[in-house]
Amino acid sequence: MPRTATTYQPHLLDPHSATPQPVSPQNGRSFKLAELYQLLDCRLVDVVRLTPELILIIDDEGKFRHPAYLNLLATYLWYQHQPEARGQDSIVGRAIICHDKQFK
Hints:
This protein is an alpha+beta fold. About 15% of the residues lie in helices and about 20% in strands. InterPro entries: DUF3846.
């Protein structure tokens, strides 16, 4: 059975951890900006599309932090799904992978 937005388990990808951590929207359906700012420890988010259904929600200002921490897992996932990004850019800071319907 295909996974839908209501059954897809979002995960926090932290550059300081090799293990993705399950997270859930507070309302059980979709993340709101205020909770994303808290989860990602940021003030501005951006969306990176991986597939027609999966997205990465990232700290858009992660590269401006000192020190800035490369998120190897998020960058790897991005490169695997969007090969044209390889060698062009990388993801820095925390990220959340989720179904696109889980962010409104």
